[in-house]
Write a structure and sequence with these properties.
heterodimer, A: 252 residues, 6-stranded mixed sheet, 4-stranded antiparallel sheet, 37% helix, B: 355 residues, mainly alpha, MetI-like fold, 2 domains, 13 helices, 1% strand
Chain lengths: 252, 355
């Protein structure tokens, strides 16, 4: 089961560039939350703050509080522990090219020293089924490398890899923007399936996508969260003029 | 799913007349000039032939080297045959091996092949972990300000002439090994039989191996660094997002992806170690002998050629040395081929983009 995320007064910098300013929001558990906004508005930075990936860049800095469940991830834990609880899927599919499909999915567990073969087999199968890839790859799990799959399959493989460690939250940073429409719709179906079991945060440029998969939507602009509400409300009756301009295509 | 209201911008039809400045139909001086240029077919073809000739010189040079080595070693080849490389004579009375005695006409390549292989592999054993460590530090951990200078100095090491390394080894490294390191090795590992204290000079296989290790370190580390830098950042992020520590990220996200290039770097290092002449000749002790102890004096294929060719006592001696040269030539090729097979074995099944 997923957990909710509470963000309080989150600020983030890249060097002297203040990329996130005073973000406050609550991401509900076991729902999909979409973040939209023009390029460079800070939405990617925001999700990267949720699993402390932002700070892997040496010039990056974060202040504020992020509570995942009951845990303040900046005060009470090390990044390594946080990232084990929060899975992440990136914009470009990044499977490990030197590993088989099986090893790709099992990599998170093997990394943490998990070596029970029988359980690993089960988890790999379950994760690949959950990511709707099992039927396409079950015959060459160990024969084919992760990079031999098509772009859409690679992205679902990356989702399976993230699911294999049974995360409480799944962060997706534009997971379908490098994919064709068919793969995109598969990923969207998948998100729809997965949100009953995980808390999903998805960054997207595609507003229809946000409308299709998410219950809540946040609109970012210039490092600020302009509006955060029910998806339905954001797209039909936004409070803020800037949100309306953006979703109707007047800018961005 | 909520309906999305969309804003319909006014779009001009593509057939609309452009309103910018019209091109001048008479202003085609450039077009006329370009049309008058001809098709340059002749120039293209001559360029092609010239480049093919350049490429062929590579094969020509390799072929010529092989031919000369084979012709000049003809005498030794007829005298000893293939036995030159794998066997040696023994003293009729004492049974002691007679590896190499030009004055009495005993010639065998065995001790030199042994010396070359032992010193080179020992050098790899010392240099590879160090080189990979240097590369990891430079690419993953080093502060940006220090990265440039450190990489520069590492690569500078490769530019130092080998005779300078030899001199440094004679004056600094050999005394250091003789006085401090070798006694320690004898005391700790003497029981293996690979370290015995019957050589007071400090010269020997181990000195050669250490100096070789220092010499091949820059090649291996700079190549390793290059391939590690080439590993895409997304691979590092993928591992980090799974909850990896920095070392796990380097192992799984970087080294694993870069291993082909690292093997390539090691091959290059081995190639240089096998053929390295001057520094080795200065510290290996130059005794045509096979001893179990790594602290004993030995001799390598390259070092014996360098030491003896100029004052060879007979045509047969000279011919035997040339045959050693031929063997070194072949050994180098075999080692490279082996390494390629190794590369092939580990890259098999991974697609092009992973390399």
């Amino acid at each position: 089961m997923g957990v909710g995320i509470d963000v309080t007064n989150l600020n983030a910098w890249y060097g002297t560039n203040h990329t996130l300013q005073d973000i406050n929001l609550h991401i509900p558990a076991n729902h999909a939350t979409a973040l939209i906004g023009p390029s460079g508005c800070g939405k990617s930075t925001f999700v990267r703050c949720l699993n402390r990936m932002h700070e892997t860049n040496p010039i990056a800095r974060v202040t504020g509080q992020v509570k995942v469940g009951d845990q303040d991830i900046y005060a009470d834990a090390k990044p390594v522990e946080i990232r084990r609880r929060i899975g992440m899927v990136f914009q470009r599919p990044n499977p490990f090219p030197t590993m088989s499909i099986y090893d790709n999915v099992a990599s998170g567990l093997k990394l943490n020293g998990y070596s029970n073969r029988r359980v690993l087999d089960e988890i790999v199968e379950k994760s690949l089924k959950n990511s709707a890839l099992w039927d396409e790859v079950k015959d060459d799990l160990r024969k084919k490398s992760g990079a031999s799959l098509s772009g859409g399959q690679q992205q679902r493989l990356c989702i399976a890899r993230a699911l294999a460690v049974d995360p409480e939250v799944l962060l997706m940073d534009e997971p379908a923007s490098a994919l064709d429409p068919v793969s995109t719709s598969k990923i969207e179906d998948l998100i729809f399936e997965l949100k009953s079991q995980y808390t999903i945060v998805i960054v997207t440029h595609n507003m229809q996508q946000a409308a299709r998969v998410a219950e809540k939507t946040g609109f970012f602009l210039n490092g600020r969260l302009v509006e955060f509400d029910e998806t339905h409300k954001i797209f039909t009756n936004p409070t803020d003029k800037r949100t309306e301009d953006y979703i109707t295509g007047r800018f961005g | 799913m909520p309906e999305i209201r969309t804003f319909q911008p006014q779009i001009q039809p593509a057939s609309a007349q452009p309103t910018g400045p019209q091109p001048d139909p008479a202003g085609s001086a450039i077009r006329q000039f370009l049309r008058s240029r001809g098709n340059s077919a002749l120039a293209d073809r001559s360029f092609h032939i010239l480049m093919v000739l350049c490429a062929l010189t590579i094969f020509g040079i390799v072929g010529l080297i092989a031919v000369v080595l084979i012709l000049r070693s003809d005498m030794a080849w007829h005298q000893f045959g293939l036995k030159f490389f794998y066997t040696f004579e023994r003293d009729r009375v004492t049974g002691a091996p007679l590896y190499w005695d030009p004055v009495n006409g005993h010639f065998s390549a065995v001790p030199f092949i042994y010396g070359t292989l032992v010193s080179s592999f020992l050098a790899l054993l010392l240099a590879v972990p160090l080189a990979i460590g240097v590369a990891i530090f430079l690419t993953e951990m080093c502060p940006k300000a220090l990265r440039g200078p450190l990489a520069f100095v590492t690569e500078l090491l490769a530019a130092i002439p080998s005779v300078i390394y030899g001199l440094w080894a004679v004056f600094v490294l050999v005394p250091l090994l003789r006085d401090y390191v070798n006694p320690l090795l004898v005391r700790l590992l003497g029981w293996t039989g690979f370290f015995s204290d019957d050589n007071p000079t400090g010269l020997g296989y181990i000195s050669a191996a250490v100096i070789l290790a220092i010499m091949i370190l820059p090649i291996i580390s700079s190549l390793t660094r290059e391939v590690m830098t080439a590993v895409p950042h997304s691979q590092r992020e993928a591992v980090l997002a799974l909850g990896a520590t920095r070392w796990e990220m380097i192992r799984m996200g970087v080294l694993r992806n870069a291993r082909i290039g690292i093997v390539g770097g090691v091959i290059l290092g081995l190639g240089r170690a096998l053929g390295e002449t001057m520094a080795v000749a200065m510290v290996i002790g130059n005794s045509p002998d096979i001893q179990r102890s790594l602290l004993a004096n030995g001799s390598s294929m390259a070092s014996v050629i360098a030491n003896e060719y100029a004052e060879a006592t007979s045509d047969l001696h000279r011919s035997a040395l040339t045959e050693l040269g031929l063997a070194l030539f072949i050994v180098t090729i075999i080692v490279n081929a082996l390494a390629r097979i190794l590369v092939w074995a580990v890259t098999r099944g991974t697609p092009e983009q992973a390399r």
